[in-house]
Amino acid sequence: MWGKCAEPDPPSPPSPTALGPSRRERGMFALMTVAVLGYVLLVSAMTPAEPRQRPPLRVGVLHSQTGRLAHLEKPLADATLMAIDEINARGGLLGREVVPVQVDGASRGRTFAQATRKLLSGGAVRTIFGGYASAARRSMIPVVERYDGLLFYPAVYEGGETSHRVVYTGATPNQYITPAIQWFLDNGARSFHLVGSDYIYPRVSLALVRSQLASCGARVVGEDYLEPDTEKVSAVVRRIRGAEPDVIVSALAGATNGPFFTALRGDADGRRIPTLNLVSDEWELRSAEAQRKAGAYVAGDFVAANYFESLPDAANRRFVREYKRRYGARRVSDTIAAAYAGVHLWAHAVRSAQDAAPEAVLRAVRGASLAAPGGTVYADRQNRHLWKRARVGRIRLDGRVEPVWSSEAVIRPAPYSPYRSKQEWDALVRYLYHGWGARWERPPGGRLLPQESRPGAP
Amino acid sequence: MIHHGLWRHWLLFAGSAAALVAVRLARLPAVAACLLLVGAAVLLVNSALPLARHGVRRVVADQNSTVQTAVFAIVGSLYATLVHFSVVVVWNGWSQADTTVVQEANALADLERMSHGFSGPVHRQVRETSLTYTAVVINDEWPAMARRDSAPQAHAALSELWTIYTSMGPDDRGNALYGPSIERLGQLDDNRRLRLRASARAVPTVVWVMFHCGGALAVVMVFFFGVRRDWLQRLIVSVLAGVVALSVFLVTSFERPFAGEAGVRPDAFTAVQAQLREGDR
Q1: Which of A54, A312, B164, B273 sits at a 20 to 30 Å CA gap from A287?
Q2: In this complex, is the C-beta atom of A351 within 8 Å of any C-beta atom belonging to chain B?
Q3: Chain B within 8 Å of A378 (Cβ-Cβ)?
């Protein structure tokens, strides 16, 4: 059978279906075509375009690398750079690498202003992370506003200003000073001695304390301002001992701290008066001089802040571990944590806005929240400050600060403390600025300005 | 009735069921959601009708018995009771939430007005904190409540108001308005708590199960009624499915008083905010 060729069948007449594909086949063909086209479109949509080299996103990092504040500001610059590194490690922002442009503020307000102008006038940098002392901030703000830039300022400050071009990641006085004073009042303190270095921050902060105490019926038994960085403290210490207050509220800064606490606590016979420190945060207290001269004397004293290194949240533990690993730091302070959080807040806003322009960032930052070291912070919709928790800590003998009190919730930032009207705060700032000869601190050898008169003040 | 091409009905059935689920999950404007829900329900029962007839063709009655009618009446009545109960409960909840919001806003407005009788610093603090509270409630807490959440800043502002009154100096504490202010503050706090509780409330799962099962059973029972004209039976099941879908939509809309287009709006707070800002000028 296999060897015989079969006669070929006569060609059958073509049926209608044999003339072309059937309806079902046509349908299948159309379906397959659509599927293939869809697949091609989907793949082309999901495949990133040929990667183009996008220009880097330059940001200014403006802290003092030289001068008397360099040892305080270098850790802030480190924290800023660490946050930038973390952002770049995750692919940068909007596909661009974030490149820090570091400039030295040289611990002088005027240099900070010049450096700000230099950074912003070129146009490549629109955002600056920096500033520490109030004099530097107040010198930078007019320049930032003139060039439509954006400043992320990390330090706690005295309030009495709101610039629409600044995001303040440090605290306002009502977020750390007012609650700390109230904590002392709640614990029975009734008389207070106020002492501070004679520059804008202590003057305004202690004026707020004075108003708060007057409002609560407590007494201010003395108020002294010392020339910045002076070591002549004996007269003030004598006055404090004579007045015997329940609490000393100190806004002394820098080199004055060592001699002050040595003179105050050196005499073992005297009654130990607890001190609330408004300036000397964890890090500053552990400066070489403070350790050498007065480290032991400040043990047991109190610090008003928003953040302590020992806070147990996971974000903080991670941050502290990484910061110490990178820079070999012994301590992490409130301002360092705020500098670090500020960069991440900016990155969050840039991502939300899909734009790094200051105007877009300022819009996006309003109402934003961030899991920062020490807890979630919220950017205020009105004044671009952060809602933060207030804390009081006690300095231990080993130099660490243990938290002893924390506010029930985050606290609303109020740049203008309600204990005086906005006009009164502005008048106080003007009075001091002009009284010091257009400076933000008492000039060397300058006279002590008397308290401003406030007729009819509550 | 010829039952060839059943796959089309299955396809339609599955598609309309998926559409029902999608409409239920999607966040659509109220009118669109309502129309789509009813449309998908009508499509579902119409596609299910031939399937049911095919599956149980020997059971479909040519003549409706008295027993069948009585059972249907009982099932219908029970289901109507359940629907009525659910609608009343969610509507009451919605009304109470609305009243709570108004009372909370009133307490805040009163508190701020009474603060004028205290010293300058106290008045400034209360006014600023009240303004912050209204802004946070409107901008942050309202969207958060739609997710059954709250805004920590609102809690913070409320805590600050308490702190202002509990840490007052002796002169302000002696003020005749101190007691009434504390009372208003308590009302404010209580009403916020009630508002947050209302935002987290939900119709219990067992009620939802009964709601859906009852509706499905009522519709399925109509499948087995003998009706001479096909279009008439389709019309009957469509109307029934539409009514059930509308009931589900109604309960869903009012189930969460602060979500969706039917949700309570922060108008009372907006009015207080405007009043506070007016006072600022």
Answers
A1: A312
A2: no
A3: yes
| Domain membership of residue A246 as a residue range | 177-305+392-435
Higher-pLDDT residue of A170 and B229 is: A170
* Cβ within 8 Å, pair B124-A217: no
A272 shares a domain with A195: yes
Residue at A443 is within a domain: no
Q: Could you tell me the pLDDT band of residue A9, with boundaries at 50, 70 and 90?
A: very low
Alpha-carbon distance A34 to nearest alpha carbon in chain B (angstroms) = 20
Which residue does chain B place closest to A410, by CA atoms? B156
Q: Which two tokens stand for residue A146?
A: 């003139």
Distance CA B257, CA B145 (A): 9
Are residues A163 and A258 both part of a single domain?
no
Report the gap between the CA of A402 and the closest CA in chain B (Å): 24
Joined tokens for residue A55 = 């220009």
Mutation choice for A interface testing from B115, B118, B123, B124 by most A CBs within 10 A = B124
Residue A100 resides in a domain: yes
Number of domains in chain A: 2
Same domain, A286 and A419: yes
Q: Give A275-320 pLDDT, tens digit per residue.
A: 999 985 544 555 555 555 556 678 889 999 999 998 998 999 999 9
**Is A263 a domain residue?**
yes
Q: Residues A272, A368: one domain?
A: no
Report the candidate in A324, A283, A308 with the shortest Cα–Cα distance to residue A402.
Answer: A308
- Co-location of A396 and A277 in the same domain: yes
Chain B environment of A408 (Cβ under 8 Å): 159
Residue A203 belongs to domain with CATH number = 3.40.50.2300
Task: Please tell me whether residues A382 and A405 are part of one structural domain.
Answer: no
What global pTM score does this model have?
0.79
Its ipTM equals 0.75
Q: What is the DSSP string of A228-268?
A: TT----HHHHHHHHHH--SEEEEE--GGGHHHHHHHHHS-T
CB contact under 8 A, B152 and A211: no
- Measuring CA to CA, how many Å separate A31 from each of A7, A36, B74? 41, 9, 50
- Based on the domain organization, do A122 and A202 belong to the same domain? no
**Same domain for A428 and A324?**
no
Please check the confidence at residue A429 and state whether its pLDDT lies above 50: yes
- Alpha helix (H) residue ranges in B115-141: 120-136
Q: Which pLDDT score is estimated for A291?
A: 57
**Measured between alpha carbons, how far is A93 from B148 in angstroms, rounded to an integer?**
32
Q: How far is B153 from chain A (nearest CA, A)?
A: 7
